[in-house]
Amino acid sequence: MKQLNVGLLGIGTVGGGTYTVLTRNAAEISRRTGCNINVIQVADRNIDHAKTVTGGAVDVTDDAFAVVNNPQVDVVVELIGGYTLSKELVLKAIANGKHIVTANKALIALHGNEIFAAAQAKGVIVAYEAAVAGGIPIIKALREGLGANRIEWLAGIINGTTNFILTEMRDKGLAFADVLGEAQRLGYAEADPTFDVEGIDAAHKLTIMSAIAFGMPMKFEQAYTEGITKLQQTDIKYAEELGYRVKLLGISKLTDAGIELRVHPTLIPEKRLIANVNGAMNAVVVKGDAVGPTLYYGAGAGAEPTASAVVADLMDVARLSSASVAQRVPYLGFQAGQLNDLPILPISEVSSAYYLRLRASDKPGVLACVTKILADRDISIDAMLQKEPDDNETEADIVILTHITVEKNMDAGIAEIEASPAIVGKVVKIRMEALGK
Fold first, then answer.
1. Is-contact 249 433, C-beta < 8 A?
2. Beta strand pairing status for 244-254 and 151-157?
3. Rounded CA separation 407/91 (Å)
4. How far apart are CA 43 and CA 34, in angstroms?
5. Residue 188 has what pLDDT?
6. For 272, which of 9, 98, 200, 420 is 20 to 30 Å away at the CA?
7. % helix / strand / coil in the chain, to the nearest 5?
8. pLDDT-based confidence at 335, cuts 50/70/90?
């Protein structure tokens, strides 16, 4: 039977899961691929840990370049993260004629264009299913399963840490800072959670999905990114009263003017399936012109869920490595040279509905003034919630849901509202998405 020799860079959480799945399911994998996939070398800075995980069954080194330069290695699995050393290692492995499997979303989002071009020239495969949404096969769905469709939009909960935090804020009525501490204690959030809570991790993943969906190069630097650190429990509660859930969504849409590429907190109608994705789970909705909306749900992180995608990529390499470049599925689903350099819309040009919360003096005429400011900019109101002031208070919350308008018009209206002497502090603005047909 054919042999595929694997060099594993990093044997931490995902690397250890990958080694476990490959070993435990070796017979099943061979039955499916007609190939024995064997890890023959592992690189990790912690050699003792690597030897413990592998049980001394493979060669272990602390020199990652020894793996990418090993003539016996057919496929390099990059699981070390980051995008400096990992980029150097991947490009060196490609230059050496080795196929690549990676779970590194930052590497693909920032340097995918260069890596794919190098692989195309060398005739090797780069597989990256595990880079987005862990064990959910969303890359394969976009690139192959939905290949007959013109993708119209996609929206995803693609960061488990932030979804866990928002779920806890809603269910337990806690503030962001309190839930973040809990998430760190439970291991859902890193000691430095910036990449997760500021939406950067989600933007990496959205960039990759958008490139495949719309046949364009990676454009991470143009993605609008807004995290959840400024979200208040008050707004989550008011959204619930109005029939909405707040989620950190990655959204990309094809419009006549260009592509929307944005990550931010979003109100979603509670009747939508994706609004009920809770805890650390991930989900992606993709709307194709032929198939309509489709939903992909599952674990977005973890040792074996992510390993499931890594091993599936290795199986694809085993099946496709003998095929010519022209017979393989293109890296972004479109033939090389056929990508469109579609413009990314600035957030000011994006159209959305909005949730607004303002703190106003409890006196006549305030609400009429606010509605006039919005009407003057052709911003129509869909729903309104006016809270009674507490005892001995002279101010009250007003919550407004608007119909769809252009963001720059909304921002201009908010600036005028905030300038009114009857308004206290800043207006809270959260975008809304119906995610319907």
1. yes
2. antiparallel
3. 41
4. 27
5. 85
6. 200
7. 40, 25, 30
8. confident
Give the global pTM.
0.94
3-state SS class at 420: coil
Report the alpha-carbon distance of residue 18 to residue 292 in Å, rounded. Answer: 34
HEC string of 60-77 equals: EECCHHHHHCCCCCCEEE
Give CA separation, 52 vs 22, 47, 349, 411, in Å: 16, 9, 54, 57
Could you give the residue numbers annotated as active site?
Answer: 205
Torsion of CA 171, 173, 175, 176, to 10 degrees: 10
- Within this chain, do residues 65 and 166 fall inside the same structural domain, yes or no? no
Give the separation between CA 369 and CA 227, rounded to whole angstroms: 31
pLDDT digits (tens, 9 = 90+) for 160-170: 999 999 999 99
Q: Which of 297, 210, 188, 222 is nearest to 255 (CA)?
A: 210
What is the CA angle 236-400-392, rounded to 5? 75
* CA 151 – CA 126 distance, rounded (Å): 23
Instruction: Please report which confidence band the pLDDT of residue 339 belongs to, taking 50, 70 and 90 as the band edges.
Output: confident
Report the relative pairing of strands 99-102 and 75-78 from DSSP bridges: parallel
pLDDT at 250: 98
Which of 308, 337, 311, 341 lies closest to 325 in space, CA to CA?
A: 337
Shared-domain flag, residues 68 and 173 = no
Q: Are residues 292 and 148 in the same domain?
A: yes
Dihedrals φ, ψ of 260, to 5°? -85, 130
User: Which residues is 358 bridged to in the sheet?
Assistant: 398
Q: Is 329 left (phi over 0), alpha (psi -120 to 50) or beta?
A: beta
- Pair 178, 260 in one domain: yes
The answer on 255 and 182 residing in a single domain is yes
- Of 9, 73, 4, nearest in space to 38 by CA: 4
Residue-range definition of the domain harbouring residue 413: 348-432
Q: Are residues 396 and 425 in the same domain?
A: yes
Q: Which residues make Cβ contacts (< 8 Å) with residue 422, sequence separation at least 6?
A: 360, 361, 363, 365, 366, 369
Find out whether 133 and 305 touch, Cβ atoms under 8 Å. Answer: no
Token representation of residue 64? 């990652």
pLDDT (mean) for 358-383: 92
Q: Which two tokens stand for residue 432?
A: 């809304």
Same domain, 159 and 295: yes
